[in-house]
Amino acid sequence: MSDIDYILYPEWIVPVVPRDAVLTNHCVVISESRIVNICPSSEGRELEAKRHIELPQHVLLPGLINCHGHAAMSLLRGYADDQPLMTWLGEIWPAETAFVSEDYVRDGTDLALAELLLGGTTTFSDMYFYPDVTAERADFAGLRAQLVFPVIDVQTAWARDPEEYLAKGLALRDTYRNHERIEIGFGPHSNYTVSEETLQRVATLANELDAPVQIHLHETRGEVQMSVENLGERPIEQLNRLGMLGPRSQCVHMTALSEGDFDILETTGAHVIHCPRSNMKLASGICPTQRLLDRDINVALGTDGAASNNRINMIAEIQAAALIAKLENSESTAISAATALEMATINGAKALGLENDIGSLEIGKQADMIALRLDDPALQPVNNVLSHVVYATSGAELTHSWVAGKPLVVDRQLTTLSMATITSRANTWRDQLLAFRAQRSSENNAHHQENNPQ
After folding, report:
1. pLDDT tens digit string along 283-302?
2. Is the pTM of this model over 0.85?
3. 216 — alpha (psi -120 to 50), left (phi > 0) or beta?
């Protein structure tokens, strides 16, 4: 019996490392979850393998890495659109207070995982309540995940206070300590929803455990100004003073930056997670990605949640990251196609501390891969495969997805999740959420009439 599980024969391979490389007439050899060879197809066909898989008109890529999201919020897609951030939160938080539960998180997470897989994501980072449920669903579906448990100063359905958030999160981290695909980290929401005392505790614990920390940071100019007025320092200055920033820190959004902020990021080695479509939709601002990269500050990509995006499609995020950078810099060479793809692959792996295992197609790395079929009329002629992947695809071209060598999508069909069940449960939650919103609107109108009689 051969030790080779299967060999893939795509028309093109974009390994990401080395940069700008596009291989033709090559194959990828997989054994026991890892890439054991990338060689000319003629050599591969001479090898004994359990399966030889032909992928004509396909490009093979490393699986995409979504470094920030709130999976269960997929059930709130379109719930409070076209509003600024704080008004949007004023609609979202009451709905979450009313509905968030283990069942809600299970069904919302399953919906998100299906969308992620069918859009090319194989690894995701998530910050949401009931992370234990999210972990169970990610494990069942077969994805790779970093789950940062929420820490916030207000009571929610998951915990009463920071003490309980930390106790539950640390217990979950112990449960998944040796898991091959799932890591648990700290997810303090922001410096305006978490006290300095709690932020200090998070920083101390994360440093002791060498655990990842992810936090919403410098999402808007208003957030930064509020911190300056209340604390006398910018949010990133506070976190730096508390010792929270380092190579395992992930700063999400980062749209309002000063030169001093750049210096802190460069000195500490903290990573930036850029969420372009969510930031555009909420008019939060633009992360200065090209300037960050020019300072050797690692920038990765995230979708944020479907409630503020409204897609959790990393290919759409790659395109947005490239285009918005060109507009911001008034320079068409800003964030090239290769750079944008790196932000969704190897840069994401670096941000999660996984660059030795994923983020590129290299011998010895985990077989986290996706295949896109490039035979659509909108993709013809294929003059530049790398450019096509970034600027012309939509995610609908995805036909196959593997994590640790295991197929999770085959011929665009999910192998571990049932779309019929997922859709049915999502529609049940939709009906309840719409009824809740209608009730709130009616109560608000009645309150307004009482206080403003004709």
Report:
1. 999 999 999 999 999 999 99
2. yes
3. beta
